[in-house]
Specification:
Rossmann fold, 5-stranded parallel sheet, 4-stranded antiparallel sheet, 15 helices
Length: 376
């Protein structure tokens, strides 16, 4: 209610099973409680739309998680902007708090080597600002990030579980709810902990009854102890959203644009860096709006060797020959050549049934999904 006028709000239907964002939040709520017993665990990322995401409840949700897990609200860390952000993140990771909350990462495309280290290495050390020595960081903390228009990129994508909050209105801070949410969470903490610990204990005692989700590198213990019991009870697998997060990664979209421009211009033919730079479409895709020197253009192109994205893979047919010890001097001035191997198209998929061993009999290496289907 707002004054005497009812406000129509879209709320969770408790008669239905948890949807994807609810499942991801429940998984990370359980993670926060179990975190000290886990060697490694992903971070919680709460995002909401740019502008209209202010007041959606991201900070409130993190405080509720903290109260449930620890009994108190977590200290909030503001990590600054631009080049100062990584320094702020390192400073936050040095704190001994059980929950590290990084707040107001608004309109940020986050790529943090420090967070990557903290989330997948234990123990770990980082060098704080103004110090010449590395210090051990808090790798047993539950890490939570939030921001409007926050996007996750590069290697951090596979290290987080993302939850999107959308008030579905322009000014969600004007909503009114009965009661005091955080007070209610604190009062219900014994019941919440009892439910979470019961699920955890049941999963540990009955591993053969668990439904297994998608594998997630570095987090096998977390997957078995936390995520899989919740999947068994009807939650969605939050790891499924990693592909969606990757699809929104600006660096991946940039690289995919290069591959598409290359395929359109050259097909799967072999080209040198000079030939690639002479093609306006490919040159524009690689430079990405910048004016690159010949050396920087060559360096950026060389960095794509071995990259697999969207079914494509960039190869250098003469790279191995150039780097062979006996040929280094002889081929010193021979330029790298590049060839883009495109993804298999529907027309190229196997259309006829083959023998029972598609790996050895099929022309595709590895076999495409259609190859496998047509051997059934």
């Amino acid at each position: 209610m707002t004054g005497d006028q009812p406000t129509e709000l879209e709320v969770v239907d408790l008669a239905k099973g948890p949807a994807r964002d609810e499942s991801a939040f429940l998984t990370m709520l359980m993670t926060s409680v179990c975190r000290r017993s886990l060697t490694l665990a992903p971070a919680l990322v709460l995002t909401s739309p740019k502008f209209s995401g202010a007041g959606a409840g991201k900070g409130l949700s993190i405080r509720a998680v903290s109260i449930t897990a620890t009994g108190i609200s977590a200290h909030v860390n503001s990590v600054g902007r631009g080049s100062e952000m990584e320094k702020g993140i390192v400073a936050a990771l040095l704190q001994p708090d059980p929950i590290i909350s990084l707040d107001n990462l608004n309109n940020v495309f986050l790529r943090s080597p420090a967070l990557c280290t903290a989330l997948t290495e234990s123990p770990a050390r980082l060098r704080p600002l103004g110090s010449s020595e590395n210090r051990e960081i808090n790798t047993r903390a539950f890490i939570a990030l939030n921001g409007n228009g926050l996007r996750i990129g590069e290697d951090l994508v596979r290290r987080v579980v993302e939850v999107e909050l959308d008030g579905k209105m322009e000014n969600p801070e004007l909503r009114s709810f009965p009661g005091d949410f955080l007070t209610d969470i604190a009062e219900a903490r014994p019941q919440l902990l009892a439910a979470i610990l019961t699920i955890w204990r049941w999963g540990r005692q009955n591993p053969d009854q668990l439904k297994r989700g998608l594998p997630l590198g570095s987090f096998s213990q977390w997957s078995e102890w936390v995520r899989d019991p919740l999947i068994t009870l009807g939650c969605h697998d939050p790891v499924e959203r990693v592909e969606t997060t990757k699809a929104n990664d600006a660096d991946r979209l940039y690289t995919l644009g290069i591959f598409e421009a290359w395929e359109e211009s050259f097909g799967d033919s072999e080209k040198t860096c000079t030939e690639a730079r002479a093609n306006e479409k490919v040159k524009e895709a690689i430079e990405g709006g910048q004016q690159l020197t010949r050396q920087k253009f060559a360096s950026r192109l060389a960095g794509l060797i071995g990259v697999r994205l969207g079914g494509y893979v960039m190869e250098s047919p003469n790279k191995a020959e150039k780097e062979r010890p006996g040929n280094k001097r002889k081929m010193r001035f021979v330029p790298y050549t590049y060839r883009l191997v495109p993804p298999p198209s529907r027309e190229d998929d196997c259309a006829e049934p083959r023998a029972a061993d598609p790996v050895n009999r099929c022309k595709h290496k590895p076999p495409t999904p259609m190859c496998l289907i047509t051997t059934m």
